[in-house]
Write a sequence for this structure.
């Protein structure tokens, strides 16, 4: 007899300063979504945090994959860590950080997955809707945040964070005399 395992709700996390925190929160959410108890979801989150911390410490170009898997009437959370370079822990130099220069007037929005995740919709769909709302929303950041929270921030099971910044002209250095 061959068992068919179906994968759903896939999330990739790239190595970076917030990898462990982001992956832990997503793992706990996915575990609860599959019907695991809060205690078991916490255990899944702990295991994912350990794996993510190892990726942060040792990977050259690492990532962590989380996904919900189902087989029949059973479900679980599966995770995998990978390093696209020669391997974890070889002591090779890390790639340089990416620096993006934002011209004055650029808006930066940072969100947690809790703002855009909906159990009944695919994440790519809600991310596209969110991006469209940002692109067509008001220029004023406070009004934009109010609009986004009103549209996407209701009836949520997960924590929500929305941080907005507007890049302005850099002030010339002040010289003391």
């Amino acid at each position: 007899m061959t068992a068919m395992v179906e994968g759903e709700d896939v999330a990739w996390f790239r190595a970076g300063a917030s990898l462990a925190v982001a992956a832990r929160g997503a793992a706990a959410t996915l575990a609860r979504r599959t019907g695991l108890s809060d205690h078991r979801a916490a255990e899944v989150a702990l295991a994912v945090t350990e794996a993510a911390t190892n990726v942060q410490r040792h990977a050259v170009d690492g990532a962590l994959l989380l996904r919900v898997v189902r087989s029949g009437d059973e479900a679980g959370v599966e995770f995998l860590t990978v390093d696209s370079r020669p391997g974890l822990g070889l002591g090779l130099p890390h790639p340089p950080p990416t620096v993006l220069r934002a011209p004055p007037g650029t808006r930066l929005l940072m969100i947690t997955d809790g703002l855009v995740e909906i159990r009944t919709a695919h994440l790519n769909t809600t991310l596209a809707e969110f991006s469209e709302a940002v692109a067509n929303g008001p220029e004023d950041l406070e009004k934009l945040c109010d609009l986004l929270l009103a549209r996407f921030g209701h009836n949520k099971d997960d924590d929500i964070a929305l941080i907005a910044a507007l890049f302005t002209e850099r002030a010339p250095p002040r010289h003391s005399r």
